[in-house]
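TICKET #2291
ISSUE: user wants both folds in one file
ATTACHMENT 1:
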Amino acid sequence: MLCKGHSTSGKATTQWSVNSAEEHTKGPNRNVRRSERSVQSVAERTTLQRNVKRNQTKGGRKIWRRMPMGISPAPEIFQRKLTQALDNVPGLYIIADDILITGQGETQEEAERDHDEKLKRFLDRCREKNIKLNAEKFRLRQKETTYIGHRLTTDGLKADPEKVRAIGQMPAPTDVKAVQRLIGMVNYLTKFCPHLSDQCKVLRDLTHKDSEWTWTTEHEEAFLNLKETIANAPVLRYYNPEEELTVQCDASDTGLGAALMQMGKPVAFASRALTQTE
């Protein structure tokens, strides 16, 4: 086994933009069929430019012929190669090794037919480019599926039920690190819950450097209310770029909040705490 740091050579690479989940959750949601695929690891099958990864070892100089583990731009290189290989295949959404295939139509039959045509084109391209898929992670013709931390449904966008369940089953924090873990998990669901930052304030105050750890009934109540808010998070409307947007904003003594609305329904929520200076 050969172990080596790649911090220096990792800087001499080109960058590639990796899409966010938000970019893949917009558009009409009526009569949609989805299939999810996972690509097998391609790091060891990605060739490197000559002399990019030269290593000095006891046995002499060695050059990596394939992309090694640990190189910092590996995710971007993978995203670029996969995106380019599947270019012009319609209905695909790609983040890392997760590929979502969508089909839409005015009826369920049209959506399934559109989905199946796109699926065939996708599989043909994978065969052409020698892209290997993980059969164990196939999910075919789904009305609902979880993709990159979001539950995609015909009704709208929901929080990942696994993340909601994990927070609901968490015991009360017993130290600052446990509070930080809780807030970190909660922050991932900010877009689904209005005024979430305000609800976290009592707990967040426990993480301040000058704060002495004391778990009171006030903290317990805030903790339980936070769980309830997340468990009852509303279903978000899919963003449609062709429809008018409305932004609702408000503020309190401790935080700022906003809601992005379309047709009177929430598309996303946002909130953050005010700093001491603010």
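ATTACHMENT 2:
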Amino acid sequence: MAAVRCSRCNRVAKPDPKMLELLVCPVTRTSLKLDETGVWLTSAAAHLKFPIRDGIPIMLVEEAEPFES
């Protein structure tokens, strides 16, 4: 899993793998997948990607971006 630097404290911030298993897409309620860069959770069903900032998944539809699968 890729690591992301925390913008506030400059430490490496990684999402907790157990927490990621519990998250689902807020639109379709289907599972999410961590992308190769480790900074997006992707929903293949909704064709959306949700950002991970400072190790925290942002699960707001307003923050999601479309992607092509």
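RESOLUTION: both attachments delivered.
EXTRA DETAIL ON ATTACHMENT 2: The chain has a mean pLDDT of 86.
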